[in-house]
């Protein structure tokens, strides 16, 4: 578990003044480290994909002990009185409260099926809501790509040229054919060029990426089913709900 130096300082100074009760992890120079802090760090680690284990628990305990030691030394140096550090602690506390409030509002007003379907309909023309079936021919130079485009416009077969010319070993023997994919599966220049194409059309000019120069043809496009996009739609609706909540709070708040 990697913790930044600033996180150490903020966590440690905050811990130095937090009330303690109940189960404990350890004591450092007579100061109790409550089990609740370990529980929080364990939750964070598991949320990042780390399975619970004795090793993880030992790592969390060691980090908490180190944080408490640092906190005690920081207080001895009077760092909690430093204006910038005090402001950062205030900001960290505020951000935790903001996150807690947003999570609570999301719990009280979850994204409804209807709202998610409305969002899905709204996104139907967005590239991220569709899958693309494309072909490409990858070559080393812009000039070579321009020559290939000229041949294709003259009636040459795309699949045959891909087999003869493409440097992409993964697709050339399939005539340059790529699997059904969302634009984000490709490098940005390729994705942006592909998403602008209409079904059956190809790029008029070569597309450069870190792999070389591409000639791209879009064979087909299909919307991603609602059920597949549901997790992303839920996040989108919740984000919209939060923004609406913020606007309502701003409208009724006295801001000077």
Q: Taking strands numbered 1, 2, ... along the chain, how are they ordered across the largest sheet? A: 3-5-4
What is the count of β-strands?
A: 5
* Category from helices, strands and their pairing: alpha+beta
Shape: elongated
Low-confidence stretches: none
Oligomer: single chain
Please bin the fraction of helical residues.
55-70%
What's the domain count?
Answer: 2
What composes the largest sheet? Answer: 3 strands, antiparallel
Order of helices and strands: HEEHHHHEHHHEEH
- The number of helices is 9
Distance between the termini: 43 Å
Mean pLDDT: 90
Strand content: 5-15%
Query: Mind telling me the C-alpha Rg?
Result: 28 Å
Question: Gist?
Answer:
The protein has 256 residues and is an alpha+beta fold.
Architecture overview:
By secondary structure, the chain is α+β, with helices and mostly antiparallel strands. The chain has 2 domains: 5-108, no CATH class; 127-223, Chitinase A, domain 3 (Roll), CATH 3.10.50. 55% of the residues lie in helices and 13% in strands. The chain contains 9 helices and 5 strands. It has a 3-stranded antiparallel β-sheet with strand order 3-5-4, with helices on both faces. A two-stranded antiparallel ribbon has the order 1-2. Helix 1 (5-17) crosses helix 3 (54-76). The longest helix has 27 residues, at 226-252. The chain starts with a helix and ends with a helix.
